[in-house]
Write a structure and sequence with these properties.
The protein is an alpha+beta fold. Helices cover 15% and strands 31% of the residues.
Length: 256
């Protein structure tokens, strides 16, 4: 074969290879792709500030309880408490985020939170410090986060991915404490779905007689209107143990 022909073919092959796209780089945390932007997704955490988040019931932002580091929003390892809630309300939406907890950790993601709802465990004879912590605790529908090794016979309705105290998750595939998990919560009309690491764990219907019967069997029966669909806030829970969150993004969708 002609040597010049071989060189020409080699140059053409190298040119073709150089025009191919490089392998995709890992997506950066707390960013949106062009596709996500076109679909209507919004960041709920910019990775650098607490913009878009506030304390409960008009209380100051609990800055001693929360910190930002390495693009994560994290609870401090203390008992100070103080949940944070979004500054905006949402009604029909998809909410996605990644989270990890420490061994023996406990936290939660709450949605459709109502600022006027008082913690159902509140007692008027509690000391002022305990009253203050309960005042700053969000009440809503909770995607529970837990080191499930702590269950020790307790009901699955308190395990990771449950609708806390009301519905147990199924087909759960959870990464252990210290590793990241991905959660998706979908609220569309009265239907709600909990997802973990790409697997649907449960679904339920707000306003339904089944849900309201379950509510009656829990502490939430003390909360007027619990189980009824209404626009509300998102919340991240401070439950004492370290927990971190990143890649918080939300997409408003049309109800039905």
């Amino acid at each position: 074969m002609n040597r010049w022909f071989c060189w020409t073919m080699l140059i053409l092959v190298l040119a073709a290879l150089s025009s191919l796209p490089l392998s995709a780089e890992p997506a950066k945390n707390n960013t949106l792709s062009d596709k996500e932007i076109s679909e209507g997704w919004e960041l709920a955490f910019d990775g650098e500030t607490f913009d878009g988040w506030q304390g409960m019931k008009g209380t100051p932002f609990p800055s001693r309880s929360w910190t930002i580091r390495d693009g994560m929003i994290c609870t401090q390892n203390d008992r100070s408490g103080g949940d944070i809630v979004s500054t905006e309300k949402y009604s029909d939406f998809m909410f996605e985020l990644e989270w990890k907890i420490s061994p023996q950790g406990n936290s939660g993601i709450k949605y459709l939170v109502q600022q006027e709802w008082l913690n159902p465990g509140f007692q008027p004879d509690y000391d002022d410090d305990r009253k203050d912590r309960m005042w700053r605790a969000a009440v809503g529908f909770e995607f529970q986060i837990l080191d499930d090794s702590m269950l020790e016979g307790r009901q699955e309705k308190t395990s990771t991915g449950s609708l806390y105290l009301l519905y147990a998750p199924k087909n759960k595939q959870m990464n252990p404490p210290g590793e990241w998990n991905h959660t998706r919560i979908i609220v569309l009309g009265n239907r709600v779905e909990h997802w973990l690491n790409g697997v649907k764990l449960l679904e339920y219907e707000l306003n339904s007689s089944e849900l309201m019967e379950r509510v009656e069997g829990t502490k939430f029966h003390k909360v007027p209107g619990y189980g009824i669909k209404a626009a509300g806030y998102l919340s991240l829970q401070h439950h004492g143990a370290p927990a971190c969150f990143r890649d918080l993004k939300i997409r408003r969708i049309s109800g039905r």
